[in-house]
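Researcher: Please generate the 3D structure of the following complex. Treat every line as part of one assembly.
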Amino acid sequence: MDPHANEIAPYDDKVVKQFVVATLVWGFVGLLLGVIIAFQLASWKLNFGLPWISFGRLRPLHTNAAIFAFAGNAVFAAVYYSTQRLCKTRMFNDGLSKIHFWGWQLIIVLAAVTLLFGITTGKEYAELEWPVDILIAVVWVIFAVNFFGTLWRRREKHLYVALWFYIATIVTVAVLHIVNSVELPVSFLKSYPAYAGVQDALVQWWYGHNAVAFFLTTPFLGLMYYFVPKAVGRPIYSYRLSIVHFWALVFIYIWAGPHHLLYTALPDWAQTLGMVFSLMLWAPSWGGTVNGLLTMRGSWDKVRTEPVLKFLAAGVTFYGMSTFEGPLLSIKSVNLLAHYTDWIVAHVHGGTLGWNAFLTFGMLFYLVPKLWKTELYSKKLADYQFWLGFLGIMIYILSMWTAGVTQGLMLQAIDGSGRLMYPDFVATVIRIVPLYWVRAVGGTLFLLSFVLMLYNMWMTVKLAPKEVVEERPILKHVEHFDDGIKQNRHRKLEGLPVVMTVLAVGAILVGTIIEILPTITMHEYVTVTNKPVPYTALEVAGRDIYLREGCYNCHSQMIRPTVPESLRYGKPSQGDEFIYDHPFQWGSKRTGPDLARLGGKYPDMWHFRHMDDPRVMTPGSIMPAYTWMLRDKTEFMPLRKKLAVLKTAGVPYTADQIQNAEQDARAQAKKIADGLVAQGGPRNMEDREIVAMIAYLQKLGKAAPVAAPAPAVPAAAPTAPAAAAVPAAPQGGLP
Amino acid sequence: MTPPPVPATLALPTPQSGGLACRHCGLAFIGSGDFCCRGCENVFTLLNASGLGEYYDIREGAYCFQPPQPVSWKGEAFGHLDSPEVRAVYVTPQGEARFFVEGIHCVACLWLLERLPRLVPGIRSCRLDVSQSLLTLTLEAGAALAPIAAFIQGLGYRPHALPADQDAEELQKREQKRALLRLGLAAACTGNIMLMAVPLYGGATGAFGQLFRWLSLVIYLPVAFWGAVPFYRTALGALRSRQMNIDVPIALAIVVGSLVSTFNLFTGSPHIYFDSLAALVFLLLASRYYLRQVQLRSARSSQLLQSFFAPIAHRLADGTAYDVPPELLKVGDLVRVDNGERLPADGVVREGASQLNAAWLTGEHLPVAVKAGDAVHAGTVNEGPAFVLEVGKLLGESRLGQILAQLEREARSPIIGMTDRVSRHFLTVVLVMAVGIFLAFAATHPAEGLNRALSLLIVTCPCALALATPLTFSYALARAYRKGYVVKSGEALERLSQVRSVFFDKTGTLTHGELVVEGLTHVAGDPLRNRRLLLTLEQSSLHPIARAIRHHLEGESTLPVEGLEEQVGVGLRGRVEGRMLEVKAVPDPASVHTCVGLLEDGLLLTRVVLRDRLRSEAPSVVQALREAGCEVAILSGDARPVVAALAREVGLPESQALAALSPEAKHARVEAAPFSLMVGDGANDALALRKAHVGVAMHGGMDLSLKVADVYLSHPDLGALVDLLVLGRETRKVLWRNFGLSIAYNLVGGIAALGGWINPLAAAVIMPLSSITVLLSSTLSTREVRRRFKEAA
Amino acid sequence: MSVVLILLPLALLLALGFVLGFVWSVKKDQYEEGDTPAIRMLIDDSKPE
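Model: Done. Output below.
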């Protein structure tokens, strides 16, 4: 390559502008979706009885849009802008930059379409189906090549700490995504994860937690370490601290995942590991916060007047708050109260709206005038936006804290005689619905503040001078730092990017192994004597509908080993109950009650009428109606393939079961449909989805380990007392 | 005795009086146009022509990492750098050269200097380390160094070429890299072992338990066999010389702990301590690395400061002057000594006559006249015209060199720190007790004996004491350094805490060290004409008095003069408007200050009183020192009345103002006083600085005083003394606090271990906790120190 | 348990890679410049020639 080839090449700011625009567009979409689902929780009527905009499908779309579309594009804008300047060179390859940008937007559009149609893997934050997963991996690798190529070609010897955070992000997200997305395709739009039950849960939350860590934290820390000093005009408070911060965070974050699974069927020691390492995160996180905030010391007057600094300062402060709250929530006793409630929702939105969005806004206010060579249209508008957004966040967080704590306490409340004080789950929901309205208002305020920014940015760009001269680095004669080593043939191996990559990969993989190890060898623990009964073909069909509608967004299937939960739902869940669950459906939030021991609790007809109109069976319920399940037909055809794929994944189906999957399913459906008719239901339901759904729901908790000596009895025994403890009131409504 | 009244109109011009700011340097100046001087204009034109006009944008509101300080002086010639013998001193065979660059203070400076390759041919690459003001250049083959240095000077900085002492540098670098590697390795292993240990504490049993235990061992091995090697090495060294040091029990604990853990692992006992041991090694390595970094940094900075004073000799050969470092001179060489330069060697004046300032010998700041044939000494400063010197003795053999050598020989007997002594005894006792407890149980329960001995070794690990002490010092030194006080060692800081009497040198210490005009008294004639006449006569003289008068009369015009001549040691004379005018000393019995008079045909027209001005902060500092319980005195080589007057001004009784002291007498005074602190700036103070319990050298002093002093002040602010005394005393308090904490914890821990109430695991948990407490105590120091040494925002 | 026999050497290998990587980065003088990189990043070469 001609060594002078790049001497006059300008920085590629076009792609940065594109990512900036995408950030603004998807930010609006993500926030709008959030506001819509917030109102849907406040009023079920806003589901409009339409499948593709029901809460269960929109909520994954909201999270995906907010995380991967909004935050993702913001991160890319930051990476493309700062990397070129920190490396004093243009991006490695413009073609790759283009493919990256358009590829990522394509992924977002595909995600939107597939999720609305209920095409999902049913794994939180990793809902996209396998073809999109592959596309993500490809685009990500292209991004990685482009990024590392730029590092390799850099004209500045030292890798600034922000670049390290980017490296960690790129490498880790690649590994996380690939490991978590190991799927066995059934068809072009359907697959089952290779892992099941506890293993799947561990992999998924190792992924899920690290998605937060490496998609919403490390790149934004890189962003902070670049844009805060830039905006303030003085270097980071302590550069050494930032380097220590990086290593400590990368090293510890990886292992904190199990804190999402406290009190679950995960072995105790793995839970302890997650908790201890989460607590250890306090140190580096606060190190980072302090480092960011102290950089602004002496500039607080500017923080009051400059929108850039205002948003950055608030963002960093929210980071401090969230990283204080996070480890707190991973303490087992706190987690017991907060988990499955809206407290977690408050925590997450403090992080995303406060840290990610505000930091992004700060970056945008810095970038847009710079990129378009102009001044910001209105500082005043930015000021209004800040306070409106801030107010929105505070209303959101406070209402959800209150809702979470209220519901958490109500669900655990036991009276003097050892009985639940609020045996009806819905009673706790009704209590917090007003707070859902408040939350929706908070979200709306934030959306409005975002619209102010859109207008501000629009006017800024519109008023910008038309002739834009692209920036170029002054490269002539600027040393290539490695001149002396260039002749050395080991040159390529010695570059620091390689080293950093090796380090990050090493750290990640060691973490991976430690976390994955128990999942792979979990069968050592899942005793051979307690093997659950695999789902029948019809139950598999029903389970796929459960996944499609995103039931896991509101219902857990994991009873924690506590007295209130046992009283309310039944015997605590055991790890070995789930070994055929591809994917696991433990859930992370209980907007509705836990379903782990639902099977046999209500008659089929109850479920039939409940799906048609939840409020008939449970007055006050906020669940959307799933009328289309009564209408749409079950797909029996692919069942044989599905069972075959599941067998490959380790579910012990016999050849007969696979061969006769369709007939078996139809036979079982007929039986259930007849039963419905007998209970006064409509005729000809055997080919409808509702029947498959009922089959699955009635199996929940029934597949429980069958003890070797007496196969049938123990399976039912544990649930019986629990079921007895639940008042039979709902059944009263049955004919 | 009252100083002559100064007419209000004759007040010194303030720098701001101009109102115009130079477009390059930004300083206010008097006159017209955009620039304060031709130099600035040149730089401005050059930068714009090179496409570096952006410099001015970057500088706008740029971040300053240190307060801008005026560069001490300009106009050096660098031609000597490119003679082969000199070049070899400064440029490595790889073509690397380094400059210490004065005047760097902001982002724009960094930007500009790193763009040198675009401005000067012959530079391949260029990097500036702002924390050390160190510019490292990689030259293209055969590129000249002098134009680069001259260019940097042209930009308004002052470059000092640094001798390329490659071996020492490389050695130090390699040593630190190795330490960092050990530290990183220990950190990586500690983290990974924790991953194994947490599940074990969390209840992992069976196959996983076994797996995690074995993995712990595997990950621990590099720590034991590489990370901890420095401890083994020093421990072995100590044992060989039958000494005790802190590393002995550390090494013993590591070795015994490793063996016991391994044994337990093999026999299936659950007690393994690989995590604790790795953490122990990591903590120790980390604090030692940090400690070394702080030490190296302050050592390096004083080394850089010394480069300020490296003299250059202009050796004459075939009528041309070649610049060489004085080390390269030989006996018989002819050397030109220009005005303002320090003599590079002892010798004899061959050509010319001049005035030499021998302040380093006599403390007298008025120059003495020399002429051809006079013997002169290295280190004196030429304050007159250039002359030629024949080198008589090499630097090392010169009077200056001999004093230097004598000082180096008289290396201080090391003060053994309190903590050192205590920890040594402590360690011996612990070892004896550990062996004792093992032997006591050896016959009946050897396992229990081993357990207790190991617990004792780990729990009483004196790292709290041994780490905290140097760390406390390092923090204090770093705090001082950030304020511009270079304290050479922790030991010096310890001595600072003991100071009971403070001795000030006068010239350049309590005073600014240069003459200024105190006032003009017009005895006869027209005042305006007198001023002009005075300036006319003084217009070209290099004498300090002339400089002071010129400065005072700036802006005044001169008159045509005939036959202006300088009579060395007497004064100046010349004819103006046909009259004979003279400037010469006019002793004034009523004043202690230097008086000169302007005489017209022998008639006194104007009397000029000059004096060395007192530093403004001197009285308050003296008072603060006395309030702090220190006895304060002035030691001066000057005449009694001058010193007495000064004493009154700073508020000292006359008995505390000792005048007319030779260097030897000064040093005798200082030596006689217990726990004395001597502040000085000249080489005449060198002996006293050395003899003092603590020697403090002021900015602007010469290299000699720097070499012998314990403390160097980079800003000439006497307030530093109070800061330093407080720092010394407060640091001592911290040490005692740490000491108390250590004792308490070790007593409790030691008793618990001996009694068998804690096992090695608990010991390993308690140990880092106690260390952290003590390290935290060291880091925080005291409130008084935090208040005084608050970092400037 | 056979999987562990593959994972164990793999984990150790990675740990080794980690240390080697660290050795590399130290030897490449990334940690020698103190705070200068943090100041240097403040400068943008924003003007075309």
